[in-house]
What we know:
Layout: H1 2-41, H2 46-60, H3 62-87, H4 104-117, H5 121-131, H6 139-154, H7 159-167, H8 169-172, H9 180-196, H10 199-209, H11 214-226, H12 240-244, H13 247-263, H14 270-295, E1 334-336, E2 342-344, H15 345-352, E3 359-360, E4 367-368, E5 374-375
Antiparallel strand pairs: 1-2, 1-5, 3-4
Helix pairs in contact: 1-2, 1-3, 4-5, 4-6, 6-13, 7-9, 9-10, 9-13
Amino acid sequence: xxxxxxxxxxxxxxxxxxxxxxxxxxxxxxxxxxxxxxxxxxxxxxxxxxxxxxxxxxxxxxxxxxxxxxxxxxxxxxxxxxxxxxxxxxxxxxxxxxxxxxxxxxxxxxxxxxxxxxxxxxxxxxxxxxxxxxxxxxxxxxxxxxxxxxxxxxxxxxxxxxxxxxxxxxxxxxxxxxxxxxxxxxxxxxxxxxxxxxxxxxxxxxxxxxxxxxxxxxxxxxxxxxxxxxxxxxxxxxxxxxxxxxxxxxxxxxxxxxxxxxxxxxxxxxxxxxxxxxxxxxxxxxxxxxxxxxxxxxxxxxxxxxxxxxxxxxxxxxxxxxxxxxxxxxxxxxxxxxxxxxxxxxxxxxxxxxxxxxxxxxxxxxxxxxxxxxxxxx
Length: 378
């Protein structure tokens, strides 16, 4: 892409240079013709003046200058076209795996979910109606509730989100205690009352709400109570960071993650993740496909090489067994031996030879049992 930008800049520069050269050449030709015209009108011999004009035009070499400028411009445009062809491959169908069929119902549900997740309910309704799909769950109602609460947060209204957090307290925290999201919402409401309703209103709210958040949040609560001493000058107080931070943006992000987790959705649109990851990997996939086709290699269930996409696209444990040198999978997960070393399941089974007898860890003298090895998650 950078090469295409450089060629575009060169083409733009060449166009300006060529345009100036052509304009100067044409202006010179026009000046010569106008001069001959004035001389003829003034009474000079027409044949002699025309003959003189022909010599002047030949000396100006206007056609050569215009042609040279056009050639340079065409050359720059041709180079830009080649750079764009390299940066934007028009035929990306060759990276599609032959014989692999998409699950149409799943694909339609992912697209519909994306529309509703983004708050584009009208487009989502049209898509569901025109495809004739029957969602297994009420996607629209779930995301309507979510966007309704997000809208209230953007309008700096805490109560709808706080009511939702209290209602789903057990799902947000298995221990049944107030969640991190609930405390952030309570903190926002406390600061709002302190700034707009005064310290007494904030103190009454603190007495009602803070006691249930004492476990794990006492340090933050003590700072919030200290804000009472700086009612009219919070931004200049020792606790200014509390009010200067982007608390509303943080609460919005936290609510989005918790809501999606509660209803069983990922916090980021699966369609957006797939499209972005595909765009990042496309250039490498095109090169890989060409190499595999040239070498006569067939594509299996996995790519022969890893295409790095960045940490934001890592969603599962990645571990390479030090014995087999293979990356672990769901069927061959990483297992912790009694000594603390980690191998993949298949390597442990080979070392144990499928029996109940102890085997020696390949990295220390400890004897281990296959039955006591534990599956781990990174």
